[in-house]
Design a protein that fits this description.
The protein is 31% helix and 20% strand. The protein has 428 residues and is an alpha/beta fold. The strands form four sheets. A six-stranded mixed β-sheet has the order 10-9-13-14-1-15. A five-stranded mixed β-sheet has the order 3-2-6-7-8, sandwiched between helices. Helix 1 packs across helix 14, helix 7 packs across helix 9 and helix 9 runs antiparallel to helix 10. The chain is globular, with a radius of gyration of 22 Å.
């Protein structure tokens, strides 16, 4: 960018000094080395029954989100299946993610550590689906061909609030069955009426998969606010529909929210599909609501700045439309094909609109501050976070210090500091 006028307007904005702070969340967790034991214990519960028979081929789902310890969890599930004399394999269950290709979906779960070498079982990745029955409204229900031809499916997935709609079922096992196993066709049909109908569609198609597909077990994964594994829940197929809403309510209480009422500018160091379905979770940041089917229940934000993409998002910048300013560094990493296929499938074109692109981190932040209406120019409210998954350690401007000191869940860790920009105006 060579627009000297814009650069001058940005240079006139003085950035406030920032203080490092720590937010305190519930730390209940399962240590990584204890995960295999916890998985075996949950899957062995007597009330689940003897659902895995020797010699049977069992599909295990693996999704596209950055689930904590997903490699260890998947391997433990596979090892349990083997302990019963059955033959496990992994199926990517992520709708149209991974560029809507078999290769892309395999690469995505491998980037999370779910590899054949580590899990000790094959990965069968395909976009081919087959019809397994009809839902309660008479529509064909399709799922991954490899999963459909298995003797049984273990639907494993994290349960948490969704970023684009709220309802009885959001992100979880019902959605994994309806959209994840449905591949591109399943994602397309669930999204075809928009996010206003998603809660209904997820229940409608998820119920049908549990009824007509060879589903043996739902394996819910729960995380705390530190993105750490904290709980496993095994469910019989007929229990998924009744029990998942309770687990969703529990998961909502563990979100790593920001303990402030409002801020003028929120600076997010990075977004990505491994962080959230919308790059950054609006249930945490209060920004990114690109659909009218969710309501803000947390912090209110006037301007959002996104500085970069995660490496594991592989150029998918879905969610960048929630930002008001970004950097040329991020723009140059953007993979339009990967980003747009997600937008087309979800009908979420607003999620991929390009915000103002600035040469440096400093200019992007200054531009956002300059355009805030009603803010105190001499003492603005600014928060900087790494991403929406990691909000334990944050940076706040001096204007937010009284609110932080009054909250027992926030610890101020130091004195006010200047922003750590390098000579090029970028943060390090």
């Amino acid at each position: 960018m060579n627009n000297n006028v814009i650069k001058q307007l940005c240079a006139e904005v003085k950035l406030p000094k920032m203080l490092k702070a720590r937010q305190l969340f519930d730390r209940e967790r399962i240590e990584p080395d204890k995960i295999p034991e916890a998985v075996f214990a949950e899957m062995s519960r007597p009330e689940l029954g003897d659902y895995i028979k020797p010699g049977k081929r069992i599909a295990i789902t693996s999704g596209s989100r950055g689930v904590a310890n997903v490699g260890i969890i998947t391997k433990a599930i596979a090892d349990f299946v083997k302990s019963k004399g059955a033959v496990p394999f992994v199926v990517p269950a992520m709708g149209s993610h991974g560029g809507a290709t078999a290769e892309g979906q395999r690469a995505l779960i491998e980037s999370y550590g779910v590899t054949e070498e580590f899990t000790g079982c094959p990965i069968l990745s395909s976009m081919e689906t087959v019809v397994i029955g009809k839902n309660d409204e008479g529509q064909d229900v399709r799922i991954d061909k490899n999963a459909a031809q298995a003797d049984g499916i273990i639907v494993a997935g994290r349960i948490k609030p969704h970023t684009d709609f709220h309802g009885t079922y959001e992100s979880g096992l019902m959605k994994m069955m309806a959209i994840g196993l449905g591949k591109r066709e399943g994602a397309d049909v669930c999204h075809e009426l928009g996010f206003g109908h998603m809660a209904h569609r997820v229940q409608l198609f998820g119920r049908a998969v549990a009824k007509h597909g060879p589903v043996l077990l739902g394996f819910g994964i729960m995380e705390n606010a530190y993105c750490e594994t904290c709980k496993f829940v095994g469910l019989k197929p007929h229990e998924i529909e009744s029990e998942e809403p309770k687990l969703l309510k529990e998961a909502r209480e563990h979100l790593p929210i920001l303990y402030f009422k409002n801020t003028d500018v929120l600076v997010v160091d990075r977004i990505g599909k491994d962080i959230s379905g919308t790059g950054m979770d609006p249930n945490v940041t209060g920004t990114g609501y690109c659909t009218p089917f969710v309501t803000e229940s947390c912090i209110s934000v006037l301007r959002t700045v996104v500085l970069d993409l995660t490496e594991d998002t592989h150029g998918n910048a879905f969610g960048i439309g929630a930002a008001h300013a970004t950097t040329k560094r991020l723009f140059d990493k953007l993979d339009f094909d990967a980003t747009y296929i997600n937008a087309v499938t979800s009908r979420g074109l607003d999620q991929v609109k390009i915000p103002c692109v600035m040469d440096t981190d400093k200019e992007a932040i200054q531009l956002a501050l300059r355009t805030c209406l009603g803010s105190d120019r001499e003492n603005p409210r600014v928060i900087r976070v790494q991403d929406s998954l990691h909000t334990e350690t944050i940076w706040i401007s001096q204007a937010m210090l009284p609110e932080a000191k009054a909250n027992k869940r926030i610890e101020v860790l130091g004195e006010p500091e200047e922003w750590p920009f390098d000579l090029n105006g970028n943060l390090w």
